[in-house]
Amino acid sequence: MTESFRMVKLLQLTDTHLYADPAGCLLGVNTRESFRAVVAEALEHGPYDLVLVTGDLVHDSSRAGYDALIEGLGAFRAPVHCLAGNHDEAHAFAGNLDRGGVTAPRQVDVGPWRLVLLDSTIPGEEGGHLDDGELQHLNAALAEGDRHVLVCMHHQPLPVGSVWLDTMAIDNGDRLFRAIEGHPRVRGLLWGHIHQEFDRVLNGVRLLASPSTCVQFAVGRRSFQVDNRPPGFRVLELLPDGRIVTRVHRIDAVPAGLDVASGGY
Known about the structure:
Elements: E1 8-13, E2 25-26, E3 29-30, H1 31-43, E4 50-54, H2 63-73, E5 80-83, H3 90-96, E6 102-103, E7 107-110, E8 113-117, H4 132-143, E9 148-152, H5 163-166, H6 173-180, E10 186-191, E11 198-202, E12 205-209, E13 216-217, E14 226-227, E15 232-238, E16 244-250
Helix pairs in contact: 4-6
């Protein structure tokens, strides 16, 4: 293992939902403005070894939306890696990255850690699935080397306690958990999609999700409900011994215009 005694500092941003129109709003929130506010706050907690954006990057598949994303992420002066979410149309996602230091790799090795990035999207669907190719990719990544592993995806791989959200989880998450069973180097699973904080340990594996950079969803609800909490991000310190030290940070204020009475998005 190279750089075996190095701590890796990772920033997770997720569910940015940017639009071509700088005035574009999701549930009343101007997503570009909230993204800029989150980036400014996240810079105060850096620098970072890498930045990971876990899906739903651009809400309308627009080149201008990706331009705004890449411009904003350039402030970190660190490698940026992205996953597609259910709102990222596949051709737009693939055609608008790999520029400005923003890429969509399958695997990243940094210090004593390996990040394995899985595509959990289903074209045209809100929910998630890991096909055989994704699981084979994971198995190959686990079979080679001796780094600690953080597995990253967009959708949640297990129920998080919100009935409506859990209809859009990975529908074969049990296969993921079977795949990592018996691999003690898998230290954590990290995802977006749920627009809320999640932090549990299951069979020694840390399970983590994070707030959106724009609108938050209320925790533990049977039906859609907006949460009146500010946008945020997650900072992870991936330690050489395999431990994960992590904290969610939020900006100070709820964005202006948030439609807390909305029945959906």
